[in-house]
Design goal:
Elements (H helix, E strand, L loop, with lengths): L1 E4 L6 E5 L8 H18 L6 E6 L9 H28 L1
Parallel strand pairs: 2-3
Antiparallel strand pairs: 1-3
Length: about 90
Amino acid sequence: MLARPNELGHARMGVIIGKRSAKLAVQRNWFKRTVRDAFRLRRESLSNWDYLIIAKPGIAKQEREQVRQWLDQSWQRLQRQGALRVQGAQNS
């Protein structure tokens, strides 16, 4: 997952998953639906950042709940890092 602040006032998200990550279109669509749903449920609590989720090979073998947990952990980690950078810039 990659993230970058934006000036739009709301969070945005993009998903990249190729055939190397999941050979079947059904698997790729399942991953995208899972990511979009997790983002939709958490969107209000996310800060003004653009998020890009890039799937790695083997993601199709994961359970839906494992993917959601990973996403939640990643968003929390990125927000903590972003908040630290903003505070550090304000103190300078």
